[in-house]
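In this section we walk through a basic example: taking a raw amino acid sequence and producing a predicted 3D structure, encoded as discrete structure tokens. The instruction is simple. Fold the sequence below.
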Amino acid sequence: MHNLLRMAGQKIRAFDDAYAGKVSDLIESKVKNSNLKFGLQAGSATPITYRPGMEDIGSAKEMMLALGVLGGTYGANFASRYALPAGAAVLGLKGAADITAGLYNAASDMPLLPQDQSNTYV
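The resulting token sequence is shown next.
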């Protein structure tokens, strides 16, 4: 079981590394402003499956600050590369389902999906 988990983790890391590399190449080729390029690289082109060594950080306060910055960077990377595109796909599918249901309901007396009656005005 441990070996299967390790193999799955290696595949996820390889996928994330390749994805981050493609995003980084795209940013390098399209963005000319160096400040914007740095922000985009830090915000979306850094692999999220690695953690830098933190052995040299002195106090607990500095360690907490470093972990907070690192967590924010990982969160921004995850959101921009995985969560936002998945959310857009789900909303697109929802829109397609609503259009299909509307077309069906327009052509039929029997509604395909129950209609929300809360916004009807009498």
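Looking at the output, two observations stand out. Helices lie at 2-30, 34-44, 60-107. The mean pLDDT is 78. In the next section we compare this with other chains.
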